[in-house]
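Q: How would the structure tokens look for this protein?
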Amino acid sequence: MDSQPMVGESNVSRLQAQLRDILSVNDVQVLEAPDRVVSFRGQLLRDAESAYAVLRERFQALGYTPFLRRQGDSQVVVAQQGVIIPRPTQAWVNVVLFAATLLSTLLTGAFNEVAQMVPTSEMIIPAILRQPTLLLKGLPFSLSLMSILLAHEMGHYLVGRRYNAPVSLPYFIPAPIVGLFGTMGAVIVQRAPFEDRKSLFDIGVAGPLAGLVIALPLLVFGLATSTVGPIQPGGLLEGNSILYLATKYLIFGRILPGNGVDVYLNPVAWAAWGGLLVTSLNLLPIGQLDGGHILYSLLGRRAWPVAMLMVGLLVVMGFFWQGWFMWAFLVLIFGVRHPAPLNDLTPMGFRRTILGIGILVLFVLTFTPIPFSQL
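A: Here is the predicted structure in token form.
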């Protein structure tokens, strides 16, 4: 945050002068001397959205960033010295990480396919090295999973650019070793606070919806082209969410797994299941996950105790699947409380509220309490 010092007339007087047609000021407090953070409490003279747009332009000209908050029955304008100037990003980093993740998912897909052709796991990598064309067997899995992740992150990015938010291009994260999916997901970086709850909601909800637009058709196609057979002892069994369980029932006409049989997921179905898992994890209503964005948009600071309750539930669920212990630890490290946007007063509106409730229902439908179990 770069600051522009002012001379002559006091900073407080200059700032208050800019509020003449914005806020009827009842109280002024210098929260951090010398005039670095100043609070003006009173009643807004216009709606919060238009008030903030004017305030931001006026305060930034004086070297300050405004924040709109509520305090009891009053509205508060907090002026913090400094103007947020996001640093430019290097696009080549995003390209290199995307290429590395494409390769790691391709290798993972090929690894899983070649494993069915060789007698021991130790021979899989040598077989691929001797015959590199075997990598092509990983394309169905890699392209399916990467398309879901790319749609998810580009949903965030494109809506963010629509709001002129300083969002980065997606950073894909390749897995360091061949694993279940060959990637640890992808993220975009918000290089400045969200402006208001509307933009916070729209950017947050765009990713999961865009990802599901790709994941659901791939899941249906993948399941429809997979086979059902006896459950093999010692194998890894993917967990059921309500949505996944219902989709299998619609396609196969029975609850799976059941009576000793389950569906053998082909690469497309496996990638789509992974896409649903990633979506549900992102929709956890905690911190700055997508679900945290949506919950804060709906409830404001009342979302904080809900997020803490969710962390407690993750700890409890950790006794049934230990991976939840890691997730609880990570969200505690990165922050459970979602930070307030610059303008925390503009209401969401009825349509966004209904959609937000629908997304929280979608979280329940896609959530997998025990993602993996060993038979």
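The first helix runs from residue 11 to 17.

Residues 1-8 have pLDDT under 50 and may be disordered.

Upvote if useful.
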